Amino acid sequence: MEKESNGKLKFTQEEWDNIGKYLVGNSQRFRENIIIPKSVGPVKIKTREEKLIEAGFDSCVFKSFMSCVLGYGLGAAIGLFSASVNPTITGADAKQQTAREVLRDMKNTTLGYAKNFAMIGAVFAAVECTIESYRGKSDWKNGTYAGAVTGGMIGLRAGIKAGMIGAAGFAAFSTVIDYYMRH
Questions:
Q1: Angle, vertex CA 141, rays to CA 140 and CA 145, nearest 5
Q2: Which of 109, 113, 115, 153 has the fewest CB atoms below 10 angstroms from its CB?
Q3: Which parts pass through the membrane (predicted)?
């Protein structure tokens, strides 16, 4: 700092730069995309690895895969229960089934249910995640739209009328379940 002849202080260009950096801050950022969770307690900044793992769990591929796996498990459980309750051979020429025939029938029924539930879960999750990504919102409409698309695709195998009924039914079911889960 220099003193002028009239008694005023004069700053050099370097000093003005230092004052500006002090008041405004430097141009270096500590970390990109800081995510601070809203919780009670100390704030912990997530590491890059934590953010990558979280992004992986939030991806449409992971959600679809998990829905497929969980749908397969649920379908297998429902199929096993259904096979144990429903008799497969009825009528006058029904003979006594062997244990091997009963187990084979239970396996076929269980696998059939498991595959169907896995397919429905994967399609619904993929469609819902795609719609949510496109809309940029997470609300009840995503599940309703995804239910309509999924139900329509499933029902379309039996014709246009069945596709429309399937779309309406699955959309209504998805809306009720979404409302129940959010409230």
A1: 130
A2: 115
A3: 162-181
CA 71 – CA 143 distance, rounded (Å): 17
CA within 13 Å, CB half, 50 = 9
* pLDDT tens digit sequence for 92-109: 556 777 888 888 889 999
pLDDT at 27 over 70: no
Length of the chain: 183
Contact 47, 65 (CB under 8 A): no
CA distance 82 to 66: 24
Give per-residue burial for 59-79: e unless 16+ CB within 10 Å, then b: eeeebbeebbeebbeebbebb
- Strand ranges inside the chain, DSSP E: 2-3, 9-10
Give 91's DSSP letter.
S
Phi, psi of 134 (to 5 degrees): -70, -45
